[in-house]
Specification:
The complex is a heterodimer of chains A (about 290) and B (about 270).
Chain A lengths: L4 E2 L3 H27 L1 E3 L5 E3 L3 H8 L1 H30 L6 H11 L6 H12 L5 H8 L10 H29 L3 H9 L4 H29 L3 H7 L10 H11 L3 H31 L1
Antiparallel strand pairs in A: 2-3
Helix pairs in contact in A: 1-12, 2-12, 3-7, 3-9, 5-10, 7-9, 7-10, 9-12, 11-12
Chain B lengths: L6 H21 L3 H6 L11 H8 L1 H34 E2 L3 H13 L2 H14 L6 H25 L4 H8 L4 H12 L1 H17 L2 H5 L8 H11 L4 H21 L4 H5 L5
Helix pairs in contact in B: 1-13, 3-4, 3-13, 4-7, 4-10, 4-12, 5-7, 7-10, 8-9, 12-13
The chains are: A mainly alpha (about 290), B mainly alpha (about 270).
Chain lengths: ~290, ~270
């Protein structure tokens, strides 16, 4: 930790960032707030409605259903990606030419545009022309993600695991490579088991990076839109309609601006509260 | 029986490459072959899909548009984030912690929330359907990320460096450009990579803010998929081409990428 000096002129250094981000964040946010308390019948005529839309959204079963789907999805992918990422990072080579090869290949999915990820998984998993669909059906399972809700969930989760586990691997790998060799030598002298090496040497070092990984994965999976939209279109039925997909349907599909704006604010607030909790944890880790 | 250690990463990489292989292999097939026969590799190898993309301006302009706004966004984000990250890493000032968290909240804002207001805002200022609009809009999440990562890298540089330079008579500007920026060059490279990455992969805002003139390649793809029926070969070729810039830039930052994901804090 660097001990910082108090200097109010530092504001000038921050100013360009504040102006640019405020332009992009505050004006649209004010628009959303405006819509969320008003009713319109077109022609740019608006009436003040108070908290009507908020009540409507909070009591609507549709919102509850998408929120529940969103929470389950985020929960499932976190439960898979975090342990899997750590396991892969633990078994990666520590030195040598293979490290770079591994890192580059693993980072590849992170750089593919999100709709290409969706399209790629669509043609990969289709039961008639896709390799994965053919393989699963060949093993004797009846699998068609465009019609079966369970198969659609399986495919969406698998796609996300494919897409983002590498992020956890890279973070965990960075954490592991910061452990000095001397720690391992000491453990070997003490005759420590593989488990206690993990528990008492590796896990404490991983704590910091894993908080970042969970924070990033939580935020991004909670905002997920393009990939499942291209893969399943939110279907079959509404079974993979997550919060963002539902929101875009209401706002741009039905043009129900009031309810969409109210939903946006509730949605944003949920992410904000959850992220603040992770962020506080992260900063506390850092100060130790 | 003990599993060899290389088995897990190898299996994982195979799993990562399989869908990509399927996409690439499909891009060399004719649409008829894709729909008619099931084969693990192209039977009638064809380059027709790629030729279409490279000769049809509605396709290749999509790449130029995407690369234009991604480049603009990367330069803009990094140049404004540098002084801000320096301020956060070196000084304490009124409201610094709140400001930092406020910046991060914008990284947390779901693009779906902002799609419609952004459309109205950029239409109102007359930037709709220009690369500038997308470049500015992507600042919403790229600037906070850039500040966050750079602040991590800068906090790793001892403060004595600054103090020695000031004692030697350097002004702030000269010190910052001549000494400080070269010191954290690796960090800047990583941040540029991340700005490139997140601007390149984002589609919802890019699609909302453009219609014809500045349409990104990814949006061109979705249009083709819906109107021209199933031109799967073409779609696969366009998808394959969107992977190449990423694969290219990743090579340059391969040794620092993990540190970047850890926000410069490892």
């Amino acid at each position: 930790m660097i001990d910082k000096t108090v200097n109010q002129r530092a504001w000038f250094l921050v100013l360009p960032v504040v102006v640019l981000v405020a332009f992009n964040a505050l004006i649209p946010l004010m628009t959303v707030v405006n819509y969320s308390v008003q009713e319109t019948f077109g022609n740019n005529v608006f009436f003040f409605e108070g908290v009507k839309w908020f009540e409507q959204i909070l009591n609507s079963e549709r919102f509850h259903a998408s929120l529940l789907r969103q929470l389950s999805f985020t929960g499932i992918i976190l439960l898979i990606e975090i342990p899997l990422g750590v396991a892969i990072a633990l078994s990666m080579p520590k030195k040598g030419p293979w490290v770079s090869v591994c890192l580059v290949l693993m980072a590849l999915p992170l750089l593919i545009p999100w709709n290409v990820v969706g399209a790629m998984w669509n043609i990969f998993a289709l039961p008639d022309i896709g390799l994965l669909g053919r393989m699963i059906n060949g093993m004797g399972f009846d699998y068609n993600f465009t019609q079966q809700p369970l198969a659609a969930w399986f495919t969406t989760v698998l796609m996300d695991v494919w897409h983002w586990t590498s992020l956890v691997v890279l973070l965990a790998y960075a954490g592991l490579s910061s452990i000095p060799d001397a720690y391992y030598q000491a453990a070997r002298i003490d005759g420590a088991s593989a488990w206690s090496v993990f528990r008492f040497i590796q896990l404490p070092k991983l704590k910091r990076v894993l908080t970042i990984a969970i924070l990033l994965r939580f935020m991004d999976s909670f905002m997920i839109y393009t990939e499942p939209f291209v893969l399943t279109g939110g279907g079959p039925g509404n079974t993979t309609t997550f919060l963002s997909i539902d929101l875009v349907k209401i706002a741009l599909g039905q043009f129900d601006l009031g309810p969409a704006a109210a939903m946006s604010l509730i949605y944003f607030l949920i992410i904000l509260v959850m992220s603040w909790i992770f962020y506080t944890l992260m900063m506390r880790n850092e100060e130790q | 029986m003990k599993m060899p250690k290389w088995l897990v990463p190898t299996l994982y990489i195979l799993f990562l490459l399989l869908p990509i292989y399927w996409l690439v292999s499909m891009s060399f097939k004719t649409t008829n072959e894709i729909l008619g026969t099931f084969s693990l590799w192209p039977q009638e190898f064809t380059l027709a899909n790629y030729i279409t993309i490279f000769t049809d301006p509605t396709w290749y302009n999509g790449y130029f548009n995407s690369l234009t706004y991604v480049g603009m966004n990367t330069l803009l984000s990094v140049s404004v984030a540098l002084p801000a990250a320096y301020a956060f890493s070196r000084y304490r000032f009124l409201g610094d912690k709140h400001l930092f968290f406020w910046l991060l909240t914008n990284r947390m804002a779901p693009p779906a929330v902002f799609a419609l207001p952004f459309f109205q805002l950029y239409s109102a200022v007359g930037l709709f359907d220009t690369p500038i609009a997308v470049a500015l809009a992507h600042c919403l999440f790229n600037i906070p990320l850039a500040v966050w990562i750079l602040e991590g890298f800068m906090s790793g540089v001892p403060k004595e460096l600054d103090e020695t330079a000031y004692v030697d008579g350097y002004s702030f500007g000269r010190f910052f450009i001549r000494i400080f920026i070269p010191t954290i060059a690796a960090g800047i490279g990583v941040v540029m990579f991340f700005c490139f990455m997140f601007s390149w992969v984002e589609l919802l805002l890019a699609k909302t803010l453009t219609s014809v003139a500045a349409k990104p390649i990814a949006a061109t793809m979705t249009r083709t998929a819906s109107t021209a029926g199933y031109e799967l070969g073409l779609l696969a070729a366009a998808g394959t081409l969107t992977i190449i810039p990423g694969a290219f830039v990743i090579w340059f930052v391969r040794n620092h990428i993990a540190k970047g994901f850890a926000l410069g804090r490892v």
